């Protein structure tokens, strides 16, 4: 994969990560504001700290997605990004553009989904 393409996908992942975290921040701060003013600082602290508590406070879907995004960023660091975790083949740039945090190539993904029924 070209360095420029990798850079582009990395940027997408970082944006996705920011989006996920800010979604959580928006939903949690609005519920706090509804009941109590002046707790904004606490909400800010909670959302900037990437802690276990924070992960527990977000929904399963967001948590799952955030994990995938983090795992993909980690793979970029380890230079194993773009490889299927199952068969080791290339995931393919088109698929990664649509789904930058994909773990499997299309055929392994389909096999996985069939297996899970
Ligand atoms: Zn595969």
Structure description:
- By secondary structure, this protein is mostly helical.
- The chain has one domain: DksA, coiled-coil domain (Four Helix Bundle (Hemerythrin (Met), subunit A)), CATH 1.20.120.
- The chain is built from six helices and no strands.
- The longest helix has 33 residues.
- The two termini are 33 Å apart.
- About 8% of the residues have low confidence.
Structure in a nutshell:
The chain has 117 residues and is mainly α.
* Helix content range: over 70%
The biggest sheet, with number of strands, parallel, antiparallel or mixed sense and barrel status, is: none
Q: On the 0-100 scale, what is the average pLDDT? A: 82
Distance from N terminus to C terminus (CA atoms, Å) equals 33 Å
Count of DSSP strands: 0
Give the number of helices: 6
CATH domain class name: Mainly Alpha
- Beta-strand percentage? under 5%
* Rounded radius of gyration (Å): 17 Å
Number of domains: 1
SSE pattern, N- to C-terminal: HHHHHH
Q: Unreliable stretches, pLDDT < 50, 5 or more residues?
A: 31-39
Based on Cα principal axes, name the global outline.
Answer: globular
Q: Structural class of the secondary elements? A: mainly alpha
Topology:
Elements: H1 3-35, H2 40-48, H3 52-57, H4 60-78, H5 93-98, H6 106-116
Helix pairs in contact: 1-2, 1-4
The structure holds zinc ion.
List keywords for this structure.
117 residues, mainly alpha, Four Helix Bundle (Hemerythrin (Met), subunit A), binds zinc ion
């Amino acid at each position: 994969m070209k360095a420029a393409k990798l850079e582009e996908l990395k940027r997408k992942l970082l944006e996705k990560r920011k989006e996920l975290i800010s979604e959580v921040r928006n939903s949690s701060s609005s519920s706090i504001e509804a009941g109590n003013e002046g707790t904004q600082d606490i909400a800010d602290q909670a959302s900037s700290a990437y802690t276990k508590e924070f992960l527990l406070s977000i929904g399963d879907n967001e948590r799952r997605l955030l994990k995938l995004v983090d795992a993909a960023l980690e793979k970029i660091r380890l230079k194993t990004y773009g490889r299927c975790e199952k068969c080791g083949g290339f995931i393919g740039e088109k698929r990664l553009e649509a789904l930058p945090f994909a773990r499997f190539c299309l055929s392994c993904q389909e096999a996985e989904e069939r297996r899970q029924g």
